[in-house]
Every structure is written in structure tokens, then in C-alpha cells.
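Support request from a user on the community tier.

User writes: "When I paste my C-alpha cells into the form, the page sometimes reloads and wipes my input. The last time it worked, I copied everything first. Here is what I submitted, just in case something in the input itself triggers the reload:"
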């Protein structure tokens, strides 16, 4: 593709429509992606909440069936093997078991950010915590890290951005290709029109045989050009017939004009003679001479 052709392609209606379609599709994809993301995030948060509630229900059942000692052991054991964070404190907030580094200030649901070391950098981890008071007066807190949801959010945003960029690039390339094909069809029509302007009435718009809108338009224009050619040829034949029919009268008229012209050339010298001064003097002397001649004869 030449550099001179690129501006023409970018000014075509098809390229503008392709960009408009790409923009509309990109906006639609972004809206759908946001809805899907919010749906997935809400689903993950519900699963997190259900998992924490299931752990608390399990510890309540453990306390009722096994007692305080088994509860403490179970909290410590699950803290070592499960990805959740646990904390068991007595009525005076003394730590009994668990690996949660902080004690929630109130009962119920809360979110807490805690600094942590990961890959040599300081990162803030957000925990979703549910703290309850057990029947024996102890307080139990179970927390789950938002890290999974945040990683999913970051991956989703990166994938969305790259997908949007790829979509816009592919749409632009597709628009350029379609516009080039569109421009070729338009140039074919323009070339035929220029040939007809130069007088070549036999020129016709080439068809591709795809029976698309351009082929239908080209076929209609070709029929119009054929009709115009027939009318022009009819007018040309009529003009030739009229010229042939008028050839004999025009010839006779030309002969008469030639005869009149020659006659006019003969009349002009006589008129010049009448206007000659000597002719005027002779005309004045003619009556006097005629009178003298008459007198002598008498």
C-alpha cells in the first residue's frame, strides 16, 4: 500500500464506518466486561463469606462436642494447613491460638489491611474478617485474604486493556483492507465515467460476479450507458439522413447564389460608370447637342 493511497483510504466512508463500528463494539465489550467482572467479583465474595461462615459453624460444633481444649487444638491445626487466617482469644483479648496478626476491634464483619513482605517488597494485604463470641466467652475470628480477588481483578484489567488494544488494531487493519477494496470499486466506476466523458461510449463498468450491491449498481449503470449509446447512435443516424436529404437542395441553392454573385459583379461596373463625372457632363450636353442637330436639319 502506497503512502499516497493511505490518506484516500482513511477519507473513505467505509473506513469511517469501520472505525465507528469498532468504537461501538469496543464500548459494548467494555460494558459487558465490566458487568461480567462485577458478577464474578460478587460471586467470589459470596464464596469467601460462605467459606468463613462454614469455618465458624465448624468451630461452634467442635466446642459443643469436644470442649475448649479440642477447640484450641483445632484452631491451631487449621491455622497451619489452611490458607485462612484464624485467631482465638479469651475474654481479656489474650491470644490463645491462631495466626491472624491483629485482633479485631469489634464483633461482626470487617476489613483490615496489614503490611506483609512478598518478593522483597512491602505490600498491603486486605483481610475480610468475621469475629464472633463463642458460648464459653472466647472470641473467634476467621479471615480470608482478598489477594485472590485482587489478583483476579488485576489480571482482568490487563486482559481487558490488551484485548481492547488488539481489537482496535485489528478493526483498523480490517477497515483499511475493506476501504481499499471499496476504493477499487469506486475507481473502476470513476475510470469508466472519465472514458465516457472523453467520447468512448462503449466503455462499461467491470463486474466481479459477486452479485453484491456494487455489482447491482454497476449493472444498472451499464444498462443506462447502453441506453444512452443507443440514443446517441440513433441521433447520429438521423443527422446523417437529414444531411443527405438536404444535400440536393443545398447544392441547387449554392448554384443560384453563385449565379447571383456573378450577376452582381456585372452590375457593379455599370453603376460605377453612372457615377463617373465625365458621364454626367455628357449627359448634360446631350440635350443641347440634340437641339443643335435638329435646328441644322431644319
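"...and here is what came back when it finally went through:"
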Amino acid at each position: 500500500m502506497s503512502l499516497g493511497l493511505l490518506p484516500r483510504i482513511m477519507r473513505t466512508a467505509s473506513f469511517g464506518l469501520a472505525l465507528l463500528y469498532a468504537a461501538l463494539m469496543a464500548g459494548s465489550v467494555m460494558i459487558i466486561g465490566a458487568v461480567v467482572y462485577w458478577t464474578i467479583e460478587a460471586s467470589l465474595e459470596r464464596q469467601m463469606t460462605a467459606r468463613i461462615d462454614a469455618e465458624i459453624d465448624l468451630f461452634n460444633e467442635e466446642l459443643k462436642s469436644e470442649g475448649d481444649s479440642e477447640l484450641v487444638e483445632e484452631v491451631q491445626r487449621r491455622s497451619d494447613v489452611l490458607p485462612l487466617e484464624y485467631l482465638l482469644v479469651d475474654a481479656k483479648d489474650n491470644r490463645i491460638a491462631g495466626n491472624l496478626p491483629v485482633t479485631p476491634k469489634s464483633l461482626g464483619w470487617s476489613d483490615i489491611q496489614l503490611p506483609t513482605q512478598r518478593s522483597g517488597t512491602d505490600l498491603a494485604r486486605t483481610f475480610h474478617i468475621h469475629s464472633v463470641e463463642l458460648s464459653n466467652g472466647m472470641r473467634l475470628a476467621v479471615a480470608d485474604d482478598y489477594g485472590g480477588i485482587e489478583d483476579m481483578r488485576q489480571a482482568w484489567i490487563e486482559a481487558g486493556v490488551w484485548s481492547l488494544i488488539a481489537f482496535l488494531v485489528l478493526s483498523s487493519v480490517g477497515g483499511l483492507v475493506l476501504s481499499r477494496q471499496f476504493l477499487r470499486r469506486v475507481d473502476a466506476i470513476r475510470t469508466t465515467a472519465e472514458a465516457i466523458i472523453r467520447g468512448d461510449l462503449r466503455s462499461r463498468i467491470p463486474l466481479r460476479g459477486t452479485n453484491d450491491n456494487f455489482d447491482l449498481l454497476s449493472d444498472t449503470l451499464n444498462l443506462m450507458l447502453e441506453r444512452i449509446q443507443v440514443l446517441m447512435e440513433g441521433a447520429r443516424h438521423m443527422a446523417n439522413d437529414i444531411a443527405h436529404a438536404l444535400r440536393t437542395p443545398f447544392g441547387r441553392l449554392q448554384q443560384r447564389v453563385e449565379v447571383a454573385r456573378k450577376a452582381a459583379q456585372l452590375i457593379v461596373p455599370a453603376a460605377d460608370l453612372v457615377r463617373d463625372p465625365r458621364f454626367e457632363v455628357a449627359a448634360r450636353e446631350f440635350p443641347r447637342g440634340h437641339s443643335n442637330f435638329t435646328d441644322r436639319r431644319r
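Agent notes: The reload is a front-end session timeout and is unrelated to the input. Residues 248-298 form one domain. Strands lie at 85-89, 95-98, 108-118, 121-133, 139-145. Escalated to web team.
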